[in-house]
Every structure is written in C-alpha cells, then in structure tokens.
Design brief:
Layout lengths: L3 E7 L2 E7 L6 H7 L18 E4 L2 E4 L13 E3 L12 H8 L9 H14 L5 H10 L10 H14 L28 H5 L6 H6 L6 E6 L7 E7 L1 H4 L4 E5 L1 H6 L29 E2 L7 E5 L2 H8 L3 E6 L6 H4 L14 E9 L1 H4 L1 H10 L2 E9 L11 E6 L5 E5 L4 H8 L10 E5 L13 H13 L3 E4 L2 H7 L6 E9 L5 E11 L7 H4 L3 H4 L8 E9 L14 H19 L3 H8 L18 H22 L4 E14 L6 E8 L5 E5 L8 H12 L10 E5 L16 H20 L9 H6 L5 E7 L21 E14 L5 E11 L6 H20 L26 E6 L22 H13 L10 H12 L16 H10 L23
Parallel strand pairs: 1-5, 6-17, 15-16, 19-20, 23-24, 27-28
Antiparallel strand pairs: 1-2, 3-4, 3-5, 6-10, 7-9, 7-11, 8-10, 12-20, 13-18, 14-15, 14-17, 18-19, 21-26, 22-23, 22-25, 26-27
The chain binds FE2/S2 (inorganic) cluster (FES) (2 copies).
Length: about 950
C-alpha cells in the first residue's frame, strides 16, 4: 500500500492531504478533510448527494478517483458556498420554501443549483429540472417541486432582482403560528451541510471505535448452512474477531429478535428472526456473521473472505409459489399462510356466498386479478448505526429509527442486555418511509458491541442495505364488483394474498388493512372478502408509507373504473354516485367518522372536466392522452390502544423545553413538535426562539410512540395540549398573569409537566373482529382524491405523468411546507410505484436507479394539492394525520389514466414501457388483451370464508391486538 501527498484548492484555499491513490475517491478525501456536507448515499454515481464542483464542472465525487485528479484542481463544496452566518440565497430559499425534508440530498442539490446558476442565472423551471435530471440529483422526500421553487426564488436574488429577505412567503403571527410556514428548526444545519448523519458520526467517532462489516452470503434465498469458514478472514490485517451466532449466545444473547404476533388468527408460535443466521438462510439478505476490525475497509475486506457452505432448499419467491399444495413449510412452527382476516358485510354476514349471488344477479359486474409490486423505500441515505456503552453503562445506539422505544422492544433479549439498560438516540436521519421500524440493524451493531465489549460502528454499503431492509409486501388479488342500473354498487368480493417474505413480524397487522381500505370511501352494502398473509423466501415485508392500503386500492380502484365503463358511466360520475354519504357505513359496517367526500369531489370536479377537455384536444395517434382518477385515504393512529407521552418544562430563563419522541425522518418531526408546542403555549405568547426541542433519546424523552400510521402529529399533539394545560395552569396566578420560573420555585411548584394522551378516551373505538372484519379501530382518517393526466407514447409504451392533482382532507394544516412536502413526496412515490419501482430481482435491483427511483423529469412539475381543511374534532387544533393518504392510491390514478389514454389496463404492476407497448400492439392488431387468470391463493374464497364462519376464534380483549409500532416494549415476546 503506497500513500500519496496531494494538494487541492478547496473552497478557495490550498489544502495538503495524504491519500491512498489506489482506493480513495474525491468524496473520501473531502469527507476525511471534514467537509462532510459531501454525503455518500448510493456510492455508485446515481444519486447526486456527493455533488461538488471540480474545476468549474459539476461532478459526482463518489465515483471520481483521487488518483485521476491533477494537483491543485479546484473544488467547491457546500461549505464554500455559504455558512450559517453568511448564507447563500439558495440556502435561504431551500429553508424558506420547504425544499428541505430529511436534508440528506440537500447539499448535493444546493451545489448542483449553484453550478447551474453560475452557467445560467436565469433558468426556466424546465431548465432547472433538466439540469437535475442530467446530473442525477435525486430527492426521495420532496417530489422536487419545492426544490425547483427554491432555485427560481434564489436566482432572482443572484440576478439582483430581489433582496434576500424577500425570499419565501411573508406571514403575520399576530394570531399565532399554527398553520404558518415557519421554517423547520433542523433546516439551517441541513442547508449548510452541518447535520451529521450516521456515516458522519462514524467518521467523527473516537479513535478506538471498532468497525463492523456484515457477512451477507447472497448465494441463495433459502438454504441450510452447512459451514461458516472464518479461518481466512480471522487472519486478515486489523481483524479483531469474526462474530458468529454462537459468540452472541455465549455473551448472553438469545440471538432471536422479539416479535409481537397478536392477531387471534396468527399461526406463528414463536419469534423467527435471528440476529445472525445460524442454521438456515431464509432470504437473500440474511446476515450470518460480523467482522469487527480496526478500520472499515479492513472489516469489509475480511467479511469478503468468510466462506459459507450451504445446501440449497426449495425457494418460494412469491405468494403464489409459497401457497401451492406441495410447497414445504418455510418456518417449522407455522403453515406458510400464517394469518387471515375476513371481511363480511350485509348479506355476507348471513351467508358469505350470498354476496356472490348478488354480484351474479346485478345488472353490471366486473372481475379482475391484480398484482402490486415489492416496492423498495429507496431512501438516499443507507444504514449506519453506532453502538457504545455510555457513562452510565447503557448500551446506546445512535441510529435511524421510526420508533426508538419500539426498537428497544424489538431488540428484546436478543443481544443479552436487559431492555432497561438499552438507550436509543436518533441521528439526523436521511429518511426512512418505514424501513427503520425493524431494528435488525440495531441488533447487529449491538451484538458486535456486546461481544467485543467495545464501541462499534456499522455502516452498510447501499447494496447490503438494499438486501437487508424490508420492503412493501407485494400482493396478488382477485376481486369482483357489481352495480345496479343506476350505477350504485350492489356488492363486492375480494381475496388478497400478501407476500410477507421470510419473517412474520407485522404480518398480522398488515392483514387488517385491506379489509379496511378496499373500496374506501364508498358505500358498499354487501361484501365478502379475505386477506391472507404468507411467508415466502423473498425479503420480509415491513412498514412503508400507507402500509397495506396501496395493495387494497390496486384492486378496488381498478374495479371501480372497470365497473364504470361496463355501466356506461363516466368514472368521476360513477365515483360521485358511490361515495358514502352521512350515515352510510364503511366496509367494516361502521359509520365513517367524517364525510368530506362530497365536498372534495366538488372541489375536484372542475379540474377533472378541464383535464378531460385538454386530453381530448391533445390526443394524437403517437401520443395518447388520458385522465385517471382514484380515491384513497388512510387511518390516523394505531387504534384504541395507541398512547403518547410528552413533557414541557419551564426553564430558568423563561424559555421552555419540550421533550418527546416525534421521530424526525424528514417528515417534520421537529417542526411538527414546534408548531404544536407554540399553539399549546399560545396563552403565554411564546415565540419559536423560546422553545428548545429535546427529542428522540430514550433516556431523556418520554415515549411518544412511533412515527408511523399518520399518528404522531395527532397523538403527540393531543399529549402536548395536556402537558401545556398543566404547565399553564401551574403558572397562572389568581390575577390571570403568569408566574416566572423563580416564582414557581419559590412557591414549590413543579416546572416540568407530562401529558399522556390515549385513544382510550375516544368513544366507540373497537378493533376489527377476527371473524367478520367488523370494527372501527381509529379515530380519524385522511382522505385523498387523485387526478392524473398522462401521456403514453405509442412507439415506446412510455408513460409520462403530465400533471397530478390531489384534493385532500388532513384536517387543519399545522405547517404548510411540511404537509406539502409529505403530499408531493407521497405522490412521487406513488408515481414511481405505478411506473417502475421494484425490488423483485435481487441481482438487478441493487441500487436506487436500478430499482426505478423517479428522477426529476418522471415527476410532473404541475403537482397540485388542494386542502379541504375540515377541522378534525378529535385531533389537536383541528389537525388530523397527514402523510400516508398521499401514497395510498395515487398509483391507481396513473394506471387508470393509462387505460383511459390507450386502452391498456395494467393488471400486474409496474406499468413498464414494454408492458404498455405490448398492450398497444395487441390492440392495434385488432386483438384483445388477455387479463391474468384468477390466481390460486391457497383455497377457494368462499370455502375459506365458510370454514372461518364454522370455526370462529374467540376475539380477545380490546388491547389484545397491538399493532406494529406501539411504543411500549413489554408488548413484544
Ligand atoms: Fe455519489 Fe450517490 S452519486 S453518492
Ligand atoms: Fe431529499 Fe430527503 S430531502 S432525500
């Protein structure tokens, strides 16, 4: 190994450094020099997070070898563009226009924008988008619109046409802050490249930290482990130990992650997921060993030398394969289908097969079989965890986690440290969208720390992370729907087969979602349905925004369109006739908690009519134009047992500290908490500068639950109100003025107050009956009505979404930039889902680009979200939840738009150009597209429903079923 001394002119100053010319990239060198605004996401040149300017050219520094650079090359990083005390207009605009969410992509985008403005200070929006497309800048959070807004605003200042302080909306705070575009507290560090994410923490850890690499054999999806040969790896330089399951057990761990399977119909008898696989590999991404070494490179080099001998076992890579009669069990204690949730309504409750009779005898009926894909989350940041024993002996994790308390529950006894000696702290986090609910990465890092009795850092490559982290469950489904001569739905039936992959945790939760969201929010008088979940040997299913509902809408929103066509009714009108009106029940036989559907359709109507007119006008043989609709929505909170605790403290200087676990993943955990606290403390006239947030550290913050299920703003907000009321009441003097800190102390009054809010205070909540699906588990919903305007190129089959409009009800909007960000981001994931995102082919879908992440030009710039701000009665200050509704069904607006444009119905996602083109060619030749045959999902639907009816299970008490993310650790076994 030969090192080299080099000079570069970085941000205007000549800098000397030592590098390894054989290995180092420019990004490696810059980061070692402390310029950690240069983020490495993909590491393979496809995400743009490492963008810098090299000799006047914008480049991606992760793939630029240092050895190829001439000495004294000039480099500009974000640190050279602006600092907190001397911000560039781009940085101000990104902060003020909501262009920053998780912030991991932000330095790359600002550097890229800076380079653009050097070349062209007066770009059009189209040129800005084309620039980002060309330079591969990817943002997975924002949907790009707010980023382009920011560049356009900043450009005005750069050109001298506007003053810096004119950037962003101006607003009055006379009536308070709630609903106003207050800038998120973490934005400044993010736009300056000063937010230290996981890999930045690793780089800055004390010198005797050990580095850990995973041994992920990646040879089979299902295999018996015959031998793990570590002899060569152990001899490699710098290696301290190769850690196997036996080492973890010897250190006191069970090596089994805790699990909560609570549904009465689950057949899972014991937790199944090992920290380090010992005897079997259940999926491609399983980890069988860890290497601890003195450097990251050495750990990784040694990991590559571990040899794993296997005996191949039968592999079942989707639901259909795993439920074939001759399929072997994947886990010994359970059949592959491990849980089912039936749904019966109306005549279906009397006799399930009566529903089939109603459908058969209705004037119009349609049927179809559908498939939705294994959607990967594709965060730009991968996975990086630090684990160390703190001064008080707590095994401390610094990581990405959507539920820091539930992560402790999930770790359980697996690594041999009692749960009350574990501490989880969130690092600044480059988004998650659901994957960090699992804690498998924490278990790995914790295992290494326990076995080595040393601080460790584990940073996976993007490909390792891609194979290790769970994905959205793919789903095969069969369904039918029927209506009368007036286009009113008479009955529906559905059968969902969800692929939960190798491990079961969460499967008995997701299986309750399709029987709630299929045909939401329509009035369906009679229904018979089933949702089944099975283990396969593919990656495990996990939380992902709109958890479990996109699978439902894939069936129901296709059938709605098909039925409208069969009945000869316009799809908008058909939906109008079938939305539930006041008093009509949802599919679970309960009244909807809110009925905003008519108002929302009235808002959408002119947009739809314009879109149809424009599509007709612009339609050509070469470029077919179409319009697609979909209704969607999602639940708010995790149900009747959901609970959140926060605390607010009066500080000696008269300011306030708020403590909570509103996990910030880019969605706005910081600003959400701030807005709620400002509003709750409004009687005291508090300003944002007077509130300090202490968040996401289990030793300092009470358990506010998980950030998921669109619950946090709702639950944490209600808890904030309770805490604030207590504090304000203690501070209030008899004359109506308020005590100071000193006065409180002098009178012996507490200065810190906790608020705990529980859904048990919401009347009438009840979970789904495991025998019928009747129930009303959550206090509120979000509602989204989507309109996609698409163009299909008949020569290539490529679909372009030209415009996307969403009318949404999320209650009162607490912070417009954050909610817009969730909306645009959710819609962008939905468009990606429709057109190509996938993680089915483990050899191909190894990075964000290969897995179909949408670059700028895939997402329309004309992205409009219209809020119908109906104050929610049970939510804080009229807010409901946000986020998940926006990704629930947008994909179906796109797919329905494709059908409307060119007559090709995509039954099996994604709508790849090849698939659409094949359909176009069939139709052009006068043929008919053959839909998929009805899938075999393990048994006949009605036979299974009869079987369930004949063998009911005893429904447990209300808190028997505890959903995926509930915070308290004791709920895991
Ligand atoms: Fe360099 Fe992704 S392009 S980290
Ligand atoms: Fe762009 Fe999160 S803000 S990836």
């Amino acid at each position: 190994m030969a090192f080299r001394k080099m000079w570069l002119k970085i941000n205007g100053a000549n800098r000397i450094f030592i590098c390894d010319p054989a290995k180092d990239s420019l990004a490696d060198v810059l980061r070692r020099l402390g310029l950690t605004s240069v983020k490495v996401g993909c590491g393979t040149g496809v995400c743009g997070s490492c963008s810098v300017i090299l000799d006047g050219q914008l480049i991606r520094s992760c793939t630029r070898k240092i050895a190829k650079l001439p000495e004294y090359s000039e480099v500009i990083t974000l640190e050279g563009i602006g600092t907190p005390n001397n911000l560039h207009p781009l940085q101000v605009a990104f902060m003020k226009l909501g262009a920053v969410q998780c912030g991991f992509c932000t330095p790359g985008f600002i550097v890229s924008s800076y380079a653009l403005l050097l070349e062209n200070a007066d770009p059009t929006r189209k040129e800005v988008r084309a620039w980002f497309q060309k330079h591969k800048n990817v943002c997975r959070c924002t949907g790009y619109k707010q980023i382009v807004d920011a560049v356009m605003e900043a450009a005005k200042v750069v050109r001298g046409e506007a003053a810096m302080d004119a950037i962003g909306p101006s607003f009055s705070t006379e009536d308070g802050y709630y609903g106003k575009p207050v800038v998120r507290p973490t934005a400044l560090a993010k736009v300056c490249g000063l937010a230290d994410y996981g890999d930045d923490q690793e780089l800055k850890m004390p010198a005797d930290t050990l580095h850990v690499a995973v041994v992920q054999p990646r040879t089979a999806h299902h295999a018996r482990i015959l031998e793990i040969d570590i002899s060569e790896a152990e001899k490699m330089p710098g290696v301290k130990k190769v850690i196997l399951a036996a080492d973890l057990k010897a250190a006191g761990g069970t090596n089994i992650m805790a699990e909560g399977q609570m549904h009465e119909r689950t057949t899972v008898m014991a937790p199944s997921r090992e920290v380090l696989n010992e005897k079997k590999i259940y999926r491609y991404g399983d980890v069988v060993a860890l290497v601890a070494a003195d450097t990251k490179d050495r750990a990784r080099a040694a990991a590559a030398q571990v040899k794993v001998k296997i005996e191949q076992l039968p592999e079942y890579l989707n639901f259909l394969e795993a439920v074939m009669p001759d399929a072997e069990r994947i886990h010994e204690d359970t059949p592959n289908i491990f849980c089912m949730q039936p749904l019966l309504k109306g005549a279906g409750l009397e006799e399930p097969s009566k529903v089939a009779g109603i459908i058969d005898s209705s004037p119009y009926s349609v049927e179809g079989s559908f498939y939705s894909t294994r959607q990967p989350h594709l965060t730009i940041e991968g996975d990086s965890v630090q684990a160390y024993f703190d001064e008080d002996g707590f095994l401390t994790f610094q990581c990405k986690s959507q539920g820091i308390y539930s992560s402790i529950g999930r770790i359980g006894n697996s690594i041999g440290i009692p749960k009350d000696r574990l501490r989880v702290v969130m690092n600044p986090t480059g988004a998650s969208f659901g994957w960090s609910t699992n804690a498998g990465d924490l278990c790995l890092a914790g295992a290494a720390a326990v076995v080595m009795k040393s601080p460790v850092s584990l940073s996976m490559s993007y490909e390792e992370h891609q194979h290790f982290s769970g994905k959205r469950c793919p789903c095969h489904s069969n369904g039918r729907a029927a209506c009368d001569e007036n286009g009113r739905i008479t009955a529906v039936e559905f059968d969902f087969g969800m692929d939960h992959g190798a491990y079961s945790w969460g499967g008995d939760d997701i299986v309750t979602k399709q029987p709630r969201f299929a045909f939401f929010p329509y009035y369906v008088p009679h229904a018979a349905g089933l949702s089944r979940i099975a283990n396969t040997n593919h990656n495990f299913g996990t939380a992902y925004r709109s958890y479990g509902s996109p699978q439902a809408y894939t069936l129901s929103e296709a059938l709605m369109d098909m039925l409208a066509e069969k009945a000869g009714i316009d799809p908008f009108e058909f939906r109008w006739r079938n939305i539930a009106r006041e008093g009509q029940t949802n599919i679970n036989s309960y009244p909807f908690r809110q009925y905003p559907m008519e108002e929302m359709m009235n808002i959408m109507r002119p947009h739809y009519e314009r879109a149809v007119r424009e599509a007709k006008k612009a339609d050509t043989r070469e470029k077919r134009r179409g319009v697609g609709l979909s209704w969607g929505g999602f639940n708010v909170t995790e149900g009747g047992t959901d609970k959140a605790t926060v605390a607010i403290e009066l500080n000696p200087d008269g300011t306030f500290t708020k403590y909570d676990t509103y996990q910030e993943l880019g969605q706005g955990g910081d600003i959400g908490s701030l807005m709620l606290t400002l509003e709750a403390l409004k009687p005291l006239g508090v300003t944002p500068e007077q509130i300090r947030l202490v968040q996401n550290d289990t030793r300092l913050c009470p358990d506010s639950g998980m950030s998921g299920a669109s619950r946090t703003h709702f639950m944490s907000g209600n808890a904030t109100i309770l805490a604030a009321e207590k504090l304000i009441s203690a501070m209030r003097k008899p004359d109506g003025t308020y005590r100071t800190y000193d006065e409180m102390k002098a009178e012996g009054l507490e200065t810190k107050y906790f608020g705990t809010y529980s859904n048990t205070s919401v009347p009438g909540l009840c979970r789904l009956d495991p025998n019928t699906g009747i129930g009303d588990p959550t206090p509120a919903f979000t509602y989204c009505l989507n309109l996609a305007e698409v163009e299909v190129d008949t020569a290539t089959g490529k679909t372009t979404v030209l415009r996307f409009t969403c009318v949404s009800d999320v209650g009162k909007v607490g912070n417009i930039d954050s909610v817009n960000g969730q909306a645009y981001g959710g819609i962008s994931h939905a468009i990606g889902f429709a057109l190509g995102e996938n993680y089915d082919d483990v050899k191909k879908h190894t990075n964000i680009a290969a897995s179909g992440v949408p670059y700028t030009e895939t997402i329309p710039d004309e992205l409009e979200v219209i809020y119908y701000e109906r104050p929610d009665e049970s939510g804080p200050f009229g807010s409901s939840g946000a986020s998940e509704g926006f990704q629930s069904s947008g994909h179906m607006a796109v797919l329905n738009g494709i059908y409307n444009a060119c007559g090709v119905r995509v039954y099996e996602m994604p709508a790849s150009p090849e698939k659409v083109k094949a359909g176009i060619d069939i139709l052009a030749a006068g043929g008919k597209i053959t839909p998929p045959k009805k899938y075999f999902l393990g048994s006949d639907l009605y036979e299974e429903l009869e079987n369930i009816k004949a063998n009911p299970v005893q429904a447990g008490p209300e808190d028997y079923f505890v959903p995926l993310g509930s915070g308290t650790a004791e709920r895991f076994f």
